[in-house]
């Protein structure tokens, strides 16, 4: 999970295939278990990679593994964010540029992982799954048509005169679940008791409800520790009020890290808790340029800024740690609570239909996410004076190069990630 946190550029949805690559193995998770974790993570609030890490850890081992995985996947990005903010006055904007330039090449590798995952789901064993492709296309149109238009205009260096409506990640998943529910009802009406009996007689799965509940309790206690740490440094009611807002903003944030920017604006900028120049001029750019869950990075950055304003750099660091613990604990505990109930129902016809139909929906969402990656790369390149179309074509070319490299020799992924990041950093710095 630490490895995922280090290479995790592109936001929560982009990390689904990265985490699947690490977790779905004979000695770890089955495909259906990872699918279940992905579904739960998509319909609960908070940081998606943190939730998947906690859910997977609870199924693989113990509550300690669940808590450790949730912390590990978020720690590299949050630590880098606070460190860069602390050094910002000395390093200046150039520090962000270095990270952004390197992220362009790393995003190209993430683009390959997204494509590889989509192909694996929609064409298992080389045979195209027609129904899955149709579902994925519909999901992509609903969630990514507007981004496709934006990318086309990026390529021709123009501004779109209109924008298409699109569903958020949460909206798409909820629409998909509603459709699956209708299909389930139709199957039950058509097949009657026979279908219901067949579903109930499915493969027996060990119930891990107690483990999930213990994990939820441990993660909730981690959030409480965050409150306590902040209160020790600044024993005041306003401290508890501020970190209460951190928790509420976490458990009310649906739709991925990008959506949290708007949530954080309403909770912290609009209320005057943090200056808009600091938020949009430093915290958001740094969080977007670094790997890891955006929600955790932004919350930690906001808390650091508030702590520095309230007293000292030390207070800022403790506040950032507190926000980290609260966002990780809040995100993971809610997901684990849902796992405790979901685990008992996984042999029901509805849940089995979710396993059958939700992955193509996720593929459509990931196709839309790939456009967001290309859009972000185009913006970084444009800021460096490089045409956006060059960044788009270059990213696609690098992504297409990965399977060719894999065929020639067994080059570890981490080597390719470092090489791609170094290449984009060198090219953009020279230009």
What best-fitting shape do the alpha-carbon axes yield?
globular
Number of domains: 1
Mean pLDDT: 82
Low-confidence stretches: 199-207
Helix and strand element order: HHHHHHHHHHHHHHHHHHH
Describe this structure in words.
With 431 residues, the chain is mostly helical. It has 19 helices and no strands. The chain has one domain. α5 crosses α14 and α13 (257-269) runs parallel beside α15.
Name a few traits of the molecule.
431 residues; mainly alpha; 0% strand; single chain
In short:
The chain has 431 residues and is mainly α. Helices cover 80% and strands 0% of the residues.
How are the elements arranged and paired?
Layout (H helix, E strand, L loop, with lengths): L1 H6 L7 H9 L7 H13 L4 H13 L2 H24 L1 H4 L2 H29 L7 H26 L13 H23 L1 H8 L8 H25 L3 H15 L5 H13 L6 H14 L4 H17 L2 H33 L3 H35 L4 H21 L4 H18 L1
Helix pairs in contact: 2-4, 2-7, 3-4, 3-17, 4-5, 4-16, 5-11, 5-14, 5-15, 5-16, 7-17, 7-18, 7-19, 8-17, 9-17, 11-12, 11-16, 12-13, 12-16, 13-15, 14-15, 15-16, 17-18
């Amino acid at each position: 999970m630490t490895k995922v946190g280090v290479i995790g550029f592109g936001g929560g949805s982009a990390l689904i295939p990265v985490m699947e690559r690490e977790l779905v193995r004979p000695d770890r998770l089955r495909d259906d278990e990872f699918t279940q974790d992905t579904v739960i993570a998509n319909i609960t609030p908070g940081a998606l990679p943190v939730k998947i890490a906690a859910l997977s850890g609870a199924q693989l081992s113990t509550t300690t593994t669940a808590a450790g995985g949730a912390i590990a996947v978020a720690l590299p990005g949050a630590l880098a964010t606070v460190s860069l903010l602390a050094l910002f006055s000395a390093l200046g904007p150039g520090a962000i540029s270095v990270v952004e330039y390197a992220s362009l090449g790393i995003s190209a590798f993430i683009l390959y992982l997204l494509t590889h995952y989509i192909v694996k789901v929609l064409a298992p064993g080389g045979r195209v799954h027609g129904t899955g492709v149709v579902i994925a296309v519909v999901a992509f149109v609903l969630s990514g048509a507007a981004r496709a238009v934006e990318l086309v205009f990026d390529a021709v260096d123009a501004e779109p005169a209109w924008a298409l409506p699109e569903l958020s990640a949460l909206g798409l998943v909820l629409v998909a679940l509603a459709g699956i529910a209708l299909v389930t009802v139709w199957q039950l009406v058509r097949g009657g008791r026979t279908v219901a009996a067949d579903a109930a007689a499915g493969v027996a799965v060990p119930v891990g409800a107690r483990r999930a509940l213990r994990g939820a309790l441990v993660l909730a206690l981690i959030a409480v520790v965050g409150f306590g740490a902040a209160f020790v440094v600044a024993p005041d009611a306003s401290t508890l009020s501020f970190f209460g807002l951190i928790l509420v903003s976490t458990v009310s944030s649906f739709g991925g890290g990008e959506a949290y920017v708007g949530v954080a604006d309403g909770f912290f900028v609009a209320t005057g808790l943090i200056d808009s120049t600091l938020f949009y001029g430093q915290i958001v750019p740094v969080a977007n340029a670094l790997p890891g869950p955006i929600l955790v990075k932004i919350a930690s950055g906001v808390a650091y800024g508030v702590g520095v304003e309230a007293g000292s750099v030390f207070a800022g660091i403790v506040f950032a740690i507190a926000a980290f613990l609260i966002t990780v604990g809040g995100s993971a505990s809610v997901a684990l609570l849902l796992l405790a109930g979901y685990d008992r129902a996984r042999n029901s016809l509805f849940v089995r239909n979710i396993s059958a139909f939700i992955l193509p929906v996720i593929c459509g969402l990931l196709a839309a996410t790939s456009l967001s990656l290309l859009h972000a790369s185009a913006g970084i390149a444009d800021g460096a004076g490089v045409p956006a179309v060059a960044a788009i074509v270059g990213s696609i070319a690098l992504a297409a190069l990965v399977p060719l490299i894999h065929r020639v020799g067994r080059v570890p992924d981490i080597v390719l990630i470092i090489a791609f990041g170094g290449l984009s950093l060198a090219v953009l710095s020279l230009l």
